[in-house]
Write a structure and sequence with these properties.
about 140 residues; mainly alpha
């Protein structure tokens, strides 16, 4: 294999690519603030829901189901997963840009590990949210 063939699959990031990485960093900061805000409210509401659900169970008009007991915990878990996922998205462009500036090939590859972890946690978040949505639709269909 000649030098030209081995260089065929090398990726080089020019200034335009770095500009988009910086834009991604800017977006990731905005996303983190919004996710943190939404997650804090979600956790607060669900803690309050857990505190209020117990007295309502005593009333004959309101029957607390398994769904009612589990949903607050699912929502809080979902909120925490969103924060962790966005933390990885926030770190990715900073680490990538730093490694590109110091020409650290190993570090650049490791930066993509951060992106993968964020995407994996986001996928788990999507599965959790989709499952709880399907569960809610099934319960709603039984009531109607």
């Amino acid at each position: 294999m000649t030098q030209e063939e081995s260089g065929l699959f090398q990726v080089r990031i020019n200034e335009e690519g770095k500009k988009f990485i910086r834009r991604f960093a800017t977006i990731s900061y905005t996303m983190m603030v919004l996710v943190f805000f939404e997650s804090a409210i979600t956790i607060y509401w669900n803690v309050r829901m857990l505190m209020v659900t117990s007295p309502l169970a005593d009333e004959a008009m309101f029957r607390v189901s398994l769904y009612d007991h589990i949903v607050p915990y699912l929502s809080m878990t979902s909120a925490l997963m969103a924060i962790v996922s966005n933390f990885y998205y926030l770190r990715f462009p900073r680490v990538l840009l730093h490694c590109l500036e110091v020409n650290d090939e190993f570090g650049t590859n490791q930066a993509f590990r951060l992106l993968f972890r964020g995407a994996f946690i986001f996928l788990c978040w999507l599965i959790l949210i989709s499952s709880s949505l399907i569960w809610a639709l099934v319960i709603q269909a039984r009531i109607v």
